[in-house]
TrEMBL record:
GO terms for molecular function: efflux transmembrane transporter activity. Residues 99-147 form the CzcB-like alpha-helical hairpin domain. This is RND family efflux transporter, MFP subunit. Belongs to the membrane fusion protein (MFP) (TC 8.A.1) family. SUPFAM superfamilies: HlyD-like secretion proteins. It comes from Kryptobacter tengchongensis.
Length: 188
């Protein structure tokens, strides 16, 4: 019985081996060697992409200044033109200094007169009213000179762009700041 069992086992094993061999040959016959395509692999790189949104609309500046001469006279030198970027305090226009020179001379005369009157008043040589008049003239001349001094140079009140330069009486410059713009229409 052992021999029969061993014989059946060997025959089954042979049939099984032949069956597996024929399947491998059939699969190779149906699928000839497939063409292998070479592929290059790249390493993934992290990048930032700019997102650009375009809208139609109008913008207005948050801050705007019309700058002009505060004293009569002619402009001696203009240091900027339309479209120029300017910084706060930058010299834009130099006015003619002839009136400033006159104001300085009047201030110096009033100052020397005031000092002389002060010493005379302290010694009791002049009445108080005359001293007070001299002091008032001195202070008025000083204020006039300081005002003229500040008005002969026109400076930018803030950082901005010169958007307009009018060369008429008063010679006006218009500035808008470059930092903050507000949209005229509301967009998301």
């Amino acid at each position: 019985m052992n021999k029969i069992f061993l014989s059946i086992f060997l025959i089954t094993l042979i049939i099984f081996a032949l069956g597996c061999a024929s399947r491998t040959e059939n699969s190779k016959a149906n699928n000839p060697d497939e063409e292998i395509i070479p592929v290059k692999a790249l390493k993934a790189v992290k990048k930032n992409y700019d997102i650009i949104l375009e809208y139609a609309g109008t913008v207005e500046p948050y801050q705007k200044a019309r700058i002009g001469a505060q004293m009569s006279g002619t402009i001696e030198k203009i240091y900027v033109k339309e479209g120029d970027f300017v910084k706060e305090g930058q010299l834009l226009v130099q006015m003619n200094t002839q009136q400033l020179t006159q104001a300085k001379i009047q201030f110096e005369l009033a100052e020397s007169d005031y000092k002389r009157m002060k010493s005379l008043f302290e010694t009791g040589s002049i009445p108080e009213q005359q001293f007070e008049r001299s002091k008032a003239n001195y202070e008025a001349a000083k204020a006039s000179y300081e005002l003229m001094l500040s008005n002969t140079q026109i400076r930018a009140p803030f950082d901005g762009i010169v958007t307009e330069r009018l060369m008429n009486e008063g010679e006006v410059f218009t500035l808008v700041p470059i930092r903050w713009w507000k949209p005229w229409d509301n967009y998301p």
